[in-house]
Write a structure and sequence with these properties.
The protein is of the alpha+beta class. Helices cover 27% and strands 26% of the residues. It binds zinc ion.
Length: 262
């Protein structure tokens, strides 16, 4: 954990300090070694919150995009269960930064617990995921600059995130790599929408700065439902135009040939 209570105040770990865990209220000690990010640690056991994962630079980088008062917030459910949310905005949106593997049951539990939650997933943890993702985008239908319709999304994205009921933002890093089909001009997260547009997955590239500022203001990052409706209307229009062209072709084939009269 980055924060513990010292004399009732949220404090970061510093050498020699002893704090109180905001969740279980047990003493925690400051771990200030040269290798890992300075943090607070429970005595004896690794952590009191089984949902907590050891933090990486990636976690900290993301959390620090948000005000300190919003980071590591203890969230209570009605039946007294408590967990520490990575970021919780004053309007109640929880943003969880997920680096390690999370199975589907576990993910569902957390979504049910937090309710108003979005995920930001470290897409670079497994090397092959990034390439698979961009390969899927290559064979998708692109709409404008930022929207991609993917027909076989299970081939392109980690399986454990496909059935998510809330938006998932994949972070595949800010640097272009050789062979990338889409040069990244400014840092983006790739949002997989929970709803499908006529069985196609919708992925939207969102500027990281916009994601953070919209979340901070309490605005939706974008209107996913409106986007899906527009895409579905477009698919229907294309399908009916194709059908009309096909029907016309069939009619022309059936028409008896007329020979010129002499
Ligand atoms: Zn604790």
């Amino acid at each position: 954990m980055r924060y513990a209570l010292v004399d009732g105040q949220r404090e970061e770990a510093r050498p020699g300090l002893v704090g109180i865990c905001p969740r279980c209220e047990e003493p925690v000690i400051a771990k200030c070694g040269p290798l890992r990010v300075w943090h607070w640690s429970h005595r004896g056991k690794r952590t009191c919150d089984v949902w907590w994962e050891p933090e990486t630079e990636w976690h900290l980088g993301w959390k620090n995009r948000f005000p300190q008062d919003w980071q590591e917030i203890v969230h209570h459910s009605n039946d007294g269960e408590k967990h520490i949310a990575d970021v919780k905005t004053p309007l109640g949106l929880v943003i969880e930064f997920q680096h390690s593997f999370l199975d589907i049951q576990e993910r569902n539990l957390r979504e049910a617990f937090y309710r108003n939650i979005v995920w930001v997933v470290d897409g670079k943890r497994r090397k092959r995921d990034r390439k698979r993702f961009f390969d899927a985008l290559k064979s998708s239908r692109q709409i404008g600059n930022a929207v991609f319709l993917v027909s076989f999304v299970e081939e392109g994205l980690p399986r454990e995130w496909l059935s998510c009921a809330v938006p998932v933002y994949f972070d595949f890093g800010d640097d272009n790599e050789p062979g990338d089909p889409f040069p990244i001009v400014s840092p983006v997260v790739w949002c997989l929408l929970p709803r499908r547009a006529m069985a196609r997955a919708v992925i939207v590239a969102i500027n990281k700065t916009h994601f953070v500022s919209a979340s901070q203001r309490g605005d939706p990052v974008f209107d996913g439902n409106k986007l899906i409706s527009a895409i579905e209307a477009d698919i229907r229009r294309r399908q009916s135009a194709e059908y009309a062209a096909f029907a016309l072709q069939q009619r022309l084939k059936k028409r008896p040939r007329r020979y010129p009269r002499f």
